[in-house]
Amino acid sequence: MDELEAAVNRTIAAHRLLNPGARVVVAVSGGADSVALLNALVALRPAWKLSLFIAHLDHALRPDSGDDAEFVRRLGRRLEIDTLIERRDVGERCAREGWSLEDGARRIRHQFLLEVARYRSAEAIALAHTADDQAETVLMRLLRGTGLMGLGAMALERPLEDRRLIRPLLGIWRSEVIAYVRRKGAAFREDPTNRDRRFLRNRIRHDLLPLLARDYNPNIKGTLVQLAEQSRTDYGFLDEEAGRSWKRTVKSAKGEGRTLAISVAAFLRQPKALQRQLMRRAIQQVKGGPGRLEYRHWLETERLFRERPAGTLLDLPGGVQLCREPERVILRPAAQRSSPSALD
Predict the structure, then answer these.
(1) Which residues, other chains included, contact 274 with Cβ-Cβ below 8 Å and sequence gap of 6+?
(2) Distance CA 171, CA 169 (A)
(3) For 16-40, what is each residue's pLDDT tens digit?
(4) C-alpha span between 157 and 272 (Å, rounded)
(5) What's this model's pTM, rounded to 2 decimal places?
């Protein structure tokens, strides 16, 4: 077994990313990383009894993007793997929704992969992010401003609605991936947009990280990956502690949809780190998804609990409203204006 294939096998086994007999959608762009992931999973397929499916989304961002789709189609045919390819106008959708191109492309790609996984009855979607991608993500989030959760960057696995995203290459460096595809004699496509300096990730990859490695820390990428791992561990502990405090601090509404009440006294007895974790959990439950608050929103929320008078309203991003009462704070969807009297 090739050393990269052995490393992927260890990762899958150690972190239980897959069960024997799993059905897996492999996201294949045609680049070296995704081609390496596909080849590694094909090599491991007999031992794990995997059913593999290829999914490729043509983002319609380049005139020659159809060539990538055709490359993936031929790759799937050669490997005798069912391949689903779709073209979506990512640029038009991002403009319509007001998304950045990077964020919008990710959203649209994840939605496509989720649809394919459901169609193929696959429990997992395999993405080809590497340790280099992890380092870039940590640095990008530091530059934009983030907390402990953001520093954790990408996880080896996470839920995507009713399916799971897995990243079997996350502990493997891109240089190892390139060496692997060369050993295998596997062709891959070079995406010219990966050098487009309009995208922050590309500026970090090609400009900032080489500068930091040359002038400040030759192992900067390894340091950033370690920071991500440590942050995820610490965040996991905080989340467990918040779970233990939840019942003492937060109560649900009766017949009020996704409305919650947080006891002011119980909330203020918690350390500040737990206060914020409780709020993240509460916002996620009310919103139906994770909340991404800026630092100023945390400060405004803390003031609401500590010093704002009853009747004060605070609207948070994503459509969540907080309402201060004498002894509690009500969280509800921003459009909801019903009386909180049904809260117990």
Answers:
(1) 238, 241, 242, 245
(2) 6
(3) 999 999 999 999 999 999 999 999 9
(4) 28
(5) 0.86
